[in-house]
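Pipeline run #58 for the internal structure catalog. This entry was flagged by the ingest filter as a single-chain record with no existing model, so it goes straight to prediction. Upstream metadata was stripped on purpose; only the residue string is passed forward. Reviewer on rotation: M.T. Logging verbosity set to normal.
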Amino acid sequence: MSEDFMLDTDDLKRRMDGAIASLKTEFASLRTGRGSASMLEPVMVEAYGQRTPINQVGTVNVPEPRMVTINVWDKSMVNAVEKAIRESGLGINPQLNGTIIMLPIPELNEERRRDLSKVAGQYAEHARVSIRNVRRDGMDQIKKGKADGLSEDDQKIWEGEVQDMTNAYIKQIDDALEHKQAEIMQV
């Protein structure tokens, strides 16, 4: 019996937490008919010879639920920021007011809500696949431990622990998806 086998559950948890964090970032980029600063996180601006996040060229504010404003610090960057938003696929038409870019958030129609709900489901499935890949890696480590002398009882205990961890993270994903879909479908 190998007493020195130790599965690195902290590493597995860290990787599963990463999948959840990535999912939350993807969910934040889905617009729900309400403005949020996080919806602009994936938008990159061609600034100073490199691709830069919008929040590094201006201040993003949400003065009211259906409006997002960007106060661009460098006047010469206003057109580049506007262009990046137009080309981002967010479906928002920026309005210029000096160095301030206003983004009125349009109402979502029923068809667009269903499409966004499906996209959220795809994001959740990608996260589930990531969690399952981490689970598979953990199970492979346990199998290697068995080859190195890990007892069958210990193997079952470790496999149960990895499976319980996987189930907990999959439940987090399902809960987050349910919440996001309810938010998207809310009129």
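catalog note: The beta strands are 44-47, 50-53, 58-64, 67-72, 95-97, 100-104.
catalog note: Helices lie at 9-29, 78-86, 110-147, 152-185.
status: ready for reviewer M.T.
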